[in-house]
Specification:
Layout (H helix, E strand, L loop, with lengths): L2 H30 L15 H23 L5 H27 L8 H11 L1 H17 L1 H4 L3
């Protein structure tokens, strides 16, 4: 495989990871934060799905940059573990932002209490990470080339 083919595969894999991060991130945030969808946000908007969409979309830019940096990590198993940790952390950050906007902003939560409350609501995050890990493993060119 020449250099241009390797570069194309790297960008194609990054694109698939990006789409996967967007789709699963959106679904897990909607499912995790569903108890707060009927509460107003801090700008008095009830547009829950729009708020989730923008939170996931804006976080995706950061994800892409960090994913491209993670491609340099060796050995590969460490790269996969760090990738899943990063995805989980970013998705939790999305959930926390939604929780702060829709629930904690109207109450007297401390930062630690809001983190614990978000963690209790984020059960769907674990399921999303399992699906993300399995699909990510299957689309990675290093794995596909060994089949």
């Amino acid at each position: 495989m020449n250099h241009s083919q390797t570069k194309k595969i790297r960008w194609t894999t990054a694109f698939f990871h990006l789409v996967l991060f967007l789709g699963l991130g959106y679904m897990q945030a909607i499912l995790s934060m569903a108890p707060f969808k009927d509460q107003p946000s801090s700008n008095l908007s009830y547009a829950f799905y729009t708020d989730v969409f923008w939170a996931v979309t804006l976080t995706t830019g950061l994800y892409l940059l960090l994913k491209l940096l993670l491609n340099r990590v060796q050995p590969f198993k460490l790269q996969v573990a760090l990738h899943l940790f990063l995805v989980g952390l970013l998705w939790f950050w999305i959930n926390w932002g939604i929780f702060l906007d829709r629930e904690a902003g109207w109450s007297t939560y401390t930062t630690v209490e809001s983190l614990y409350a978000t963690l209790r609501c984020s059960a769907w995050l674990a399921g999303g990470l399992v699906v993300f890990g399995l699909v990510s493993w299957s689309i990675n060119p290093r794995i596909a080339s060994k089949k």
